[in-house]
Amino acid sequence: MPIKINSDLPACSILENENIFIMTEKRAVSQEIRPLKVAIVNLMPTRETTETQLLRLLGNTPLQVEISLVRMESHDFKNTSTDYLEKFYIPSSEVFKHRYDGMIITGAPVEQIPFEQVDYWKELCEVFEWSKTNVFSTIHICWGAQAGLYYHYGIPKYQLDKKMFGVFKHHVDRPESLILKGFGDVFHCPHSRHTEIRREDVENCKDLMVIAESYEAGIHLISDKAERNFFLTGHWEYDRETLSGEYFRDKDKGLDIQFPENYFPENDTTNEPLYNWGCSANLLYANWLNYCVYQRTPFDLNELKK
């Protein structure tokens, strides 16, 4: 939680310049506390696994967060029972009746299909449009990031020669970014995708900026200039065993799947995978909730505006 100090104290400006989370007496006295409202639009077939992964990251802060799980009504979720969806999820038509401090849009195994041919594309576009004035900050993950960049900014995706699959080293382009406070110069993150976003397309858009990238995996973290919308091409939420599960699943199906890079020690599948992105993942989501949402969202969500 923040340290509370008098705004006239000389240390105040020094700490602010160092990106230390401080709260002045004036703000502390006037602040009212309420749970942050966060919607998760879960497009993954491994629904329960993805829920657990994201909720673990969102729950690793002192902040109280109220979660709404959201489903697409125009899609038949074959891997999840109707009873489960009706019990734990709300349809997009219901989410449109509310406003949220934050939203997460997950990836989906449809990246090799043109956006307009995805069966729930029209419905997802309605979510994107609604979020402009009803959500303060949104994180888009993997295909969700590609879809968001395409809808909001017209940025295309490109087919890769081979799947980007493994754990890759990244470097920070903008250390002053709110969502990367406390990060070192480099960090690791898993990727599992057949398509990519190219840096030149992002740089040609005056409303976007690249925050972090990888020499091997390409641009990884993109945000708008206001740092309210974030686009993550990798999977911070993945557990230690997620990539190995994908690898062995595809191998058992006889699919042409390459070995995950930088993942199994000594490239030996009998070795436990190296889990070297957990600290960064927790820090990124804590930063998002704290600095990008909690510190900036209006107390009254009816005051939300673009």
What does this protein look like?
This protein has 306 residues and is an alpha/beta fold. 31% of the residues lie in helices and 26% in strands. It has ten helices and twelve strands. The protein has a ten-stranded mixed beta sheet with strand order 5-4-3-6-7-12-11-10-8-9, with helices on both faces. A two-stranded parallel sheet has the order 1-2. Helix 6 links the parallel strand 6 and strand 7 (135-141).
Structure summarized in a few sentences:
With 306 residues, the protein is α/β, with parallel strands linked by helices.
Distance between the termini: 28 Å
Determine the mean pLDDT: 87
What order do the SSEs take from the amino end to the carboxyl end, as H and E?
EHEHEHEHEHEHEHEEHEEEHH
Sheet with the most strands, sense and barrel status = 10 strands, mixed
Structural class: alpha/beta
Strand order of the largest sheet: 5-4-3-6-7-12-11-10-8-9
Write the layout of secondary structure elements.
Blueprint: E1 3-5, H1 10-17, E2 22-24, H2 25-30, E3 36-41, H3 47-58, E4 65-71, H4 82-88, E5 89-91, H5 92-95, E6 100-105, H6 121-134, E7 135-141, H7 143-153, E8 158-172, E9 186-196, H8 199-203, E10 208-214, E11 218-224, E12 229-232, H9 242-252, H10 278-294
Parallel strand pairs: 1-2, 3-4, 3-6, 4-5, 6-7, 7-12
Antiparallel strand pairs: 8-9, 8-10, 10-11, 11-12
